[in-house]
Write a structure and sequence with these properties.
By secondary structure, the protein is an all-alpha fold. It is built from eleven helices and no strands. It folds into two domains: 37 residues, no CATH class; 207 residues, MetI-like fold (Orthogonal Bundle). α10 packs antiparallel against α11. It is globular, with a radius of gyration of 22 Å. This is ABC transporter permease.
Length: 258
């Protein structure tokens, strides 16, 4: 373990120690109150109990399937839309204003409309995770394509490349770093939207578990749900980053990039 890793581990441990102190002493500052915030020791006990629950695998499975299903649909449509908008001014004028209008709408605002649009709660949940991932993927794909040097495309056409060859060999590889960034942001947004989506779910899911814990005032369990969402989101984004590095052996981020 090098020095940077030691510093990162130490910073996490310091944050946990500070959390333990302010929660166990029920610190009540002027603008924030830690009286009802569970301590890390309480969260650790709740985590152990949750992992021993017979429902834990159902919670994990449902949430992972929902996130990856919505994210997968957003990936296909988002990249296709991004390429179309990035390559055609006419399509940009038709599609981009709608995208920019819908993009700032938070996921929670889509819940009533999602319930009306889809006959099942599962369809509504998938739609919310899909919406969360779609816009980062679309916009980063557009950015990556617009940042390409147009001389590369002109040179390839002068050498006889057709439209499909230009797309496959010039446009997509050149835009891939931005697309991968959009995929990472989209995956994170899908997990962020999970709690909102699973508010309208049935009986299973990490987001549903977190919301149910709040309603039942099981405060340590709220933090357990939050932590698992964070861990799953971090691992998912790391997997996408690894996949991106495998697809882009020619591309390496600068030394200062984390």
């Amino acid at each position: 373990m090098n020095r940077r890793h030691l510093v990162r581990v130490a910073s996490v441990l310091a944050a946990i120690v500070l959390w333990q102190i302010v929660s166990s002493r029920h610190v009540d500052a002027r603008f924030i109150n830690f009286g009802n915030v569970p301590a890390p020791t309480d969260v650790a006990q709740a985590t152990w109990s949750f992992l021993q629950s017979p429902k834990v695998l159902h919670h994990f499975k449902n949430s992972i399937l929902r996130v990856f299903s919505g994210f997968g649909a957003a990936t296909i449509l988002g990249i296709a839309l991004g390429v179309a908008v990035g390559r055609s001014k006419r399509i940009e004028d038709i599609v981009l204003p709608t995208i920019e209008t819908l993009r700032p709408i938070p996921a929670v605002a889509w819940i009533p409309l999602a319930i009306l649009m889809f006959p099942t709660t599962e369809g509504s949940i998938l739609f919310i995770t899909f919406i969360g991932a779609l816009f980062p993927i679309v916009l980063n794909t557009i950015h990556g394509i617009e940042a390409l040097d147009p001389r590369l495309i002109l040179a390839s056409r002068s050498l006889g490349a057709n439209t499909w060859s230009v797309l496959r060999e010039i446009i997509l590889p050149g835009a891939l770093p931005s697309i991968v960034t959009g995929l990472r942001l989209g995956m994170g947004a899908s997990w962020l939207c999970l709690v909102t989506a699973e508010m309208i779910a049935g009986q299973y899911g990490i987001g549903y578990y977190t919301w149910e814990s709040y309603n039942l005032q099981r405060y340590p369990d709220i933090v357990v749900g939050m932590l698992f969402i964070g861990v799953f989101g971090m691992v998912s984004s790391a997997l996408i980053n690894r996949l991106g590095m495998w697809l882009m052996p020619w591309y390496r981020p600068s030394e200062g990039t984390t």
